[in-house]
Specification:
The chain has 40 residues and is mainly α. It contains two helices and no strands. The radius of gyration is 11 Å and the shape is flat.
Length: 40
């Protein structure tokens, strides 16, 4: 469970960096949806 939490934090952190560099919120939302879909 702990490693899953770390992985989730890592994904969120990467997403934040990604949104900062791309400045494209729609793309960010699509990436987040893709992450959550692949986790299920």
């Amino acid at each position: 469970h702990f490693s899953v939490l770390i992985n989730q934090i890592f994904i969120e952190f990467n997403s934040v960096l990604f949104i900062m560099y791309t400045d494209n919120y729609d793309l960010h939302v699509q990436v987040q949806l893709l992450h959550y879909l692949t986790l299920e």
